[in-house]
Design brief:
By secondary structure, the protein is an alpha/beta fold. It has eight helices and 14 strands. The chain is 28% helix and 28% strand. Helix 2 links the parallel strand 2 and strand 3. Helix 7 packs antiparallel against helix 8. The radius of gyration is 21 Å and the shape is elongated.
Length: 321
């Protein structure tokens, strides 16, 4: 019997501020991006499913549609199943049991805690990440198994990978946009970006935070594409929380800008100083697979990969003296 693949995707981060009932809560911008990234990654890895089963709750529905669009899958591929909303393992197994026997690759989109419990039920072993979360929002579990969809017994599967959107670069968002637009150009807004230059005083000495790039090959500042619905400043604040796990007060205006070449064009980055007031614990930081370091300004200048940032470090240090 040939191996089957089960992709288990948790919905993207949802918006708790709208006042909507749980079933109708929409995705925030970060949740939409995570859904697109995972869909683009699935396509890149040549894991596009033959069948998709999804909870019809708004945050799961949006996740499914965005991921499918990035994968190039038509909406008719999706089976919307009410049983998947807030579902226990038994309901998830019942939904999977209805997949045709000859279907080799299935994607299931839903909610925790049911999805994590399903992974733990099906897998003979799970290497749980250090933060204790198997499936944070927009994360994907890839399982392989030999059993028929109607006979998924406990311990019948192997976890091949656990993938989080924070581990994936923004290039995948570009890939999703290109594929969705029949290989059209990169959207203009991708070239407008913002970053933070985080700082604090410890024992009277100025320190700055740097973070490792996603591949861990160089030191950078928290930075990302400006989301269309956010200001440059608010987008920078969001990147600080996601990429470095920090909160604080940003200057009203950037301390400077720098440009770099990417995607066949030039990206312009506005850099905002941030007086850090909170550094969240590693266990609560979704990108804790990356490193973050507090270093003196002199060390930050030496380690930062982008030459233009070294000048901004100098500028901020002089301002704060």
């Amino acid at each position: 019997m040939k191996a089957k693949t089960l992709l288990i995707l948790r919905h993207g981060k949802s918006d708790w501020t709208t006042g909507d009932e749980d079933y109708h809560r929409p995705l925030v911008a970060r949740g939409r991006q995570g859904s697109q990234k995972m869909g683009a990654w699935i396509r890149q890895q040549k894991l596009v499913p033959e069948a998709v089963i999804s909870s019809p709750a708004e945050r799961a529905r949006a996740t499914t549609m965005l991921a499918c669009k990035a994968m190039g899958l038509p909406a008719k591929t999706v089976r919307w199943d009410e049983r998947l909303y807030a579902a226990p393992v038994e309901a998830l197994l019942a939904a999977l049991a209805e997949c045709p026997k000859n279907t080799r690759r299935v994607m299931l989109v839903g909610h925790n805690p049911g999805l994590e419990e399903l992974v733990e039920y099906l897998a003979s072993h799970v290497d749980v990440p250090e933060d204790g979360k198997i499936l944070p929002t927009s994360a994907l579990a890839r399982l392989e198994l030999l059993e028929d969809w109607r006979n998924l017994a406990q311990g019948c599967a192997t976890v091949v990978s656990l993938t989080r959107p924070g581990e994936l670069g923004d290039d995948l968002l570009v890939k999703a946009a290109e594929d969705a637009d029949a290989r059209g150009p990169v959207p203009d807004y991708f070239f407008t970006q913002s970053a933070v230059l985080p700082y604090r005083r410890r024992d009277g000495k100025l320190e700055m935070m740097i973070v490792a790039s996603r591949r861990g090959t160089r030191w950078v500042l928290p930075k990302g594409v400006k989301e269309p619905e956010l200001s440059l400043r608010d987008s920078a604040s969001k990147e600080a929380l996601e990429e470095a796990g920090i909160r604080g007060e940003l200057d009203e205006e950037p301390i400077g800008h720098y440009d770099y070449a990417k995607w066949g064009g030039v990206c312009s980055v506005a850099v905002f100083p941030m007086a850090v007031s909170e550094c969240i614990p590693d266990a609560e930081w979704e990108e804790n697979h990356r490193q973050r370091r507090w270093v003196p300004a002199k060390e930050a200048r030496r380690l930062l990969d982008e030459p233009a940032l070294r000048k901004l470090v100098d500028k901020l240090e002089k301002r704060l003296k």
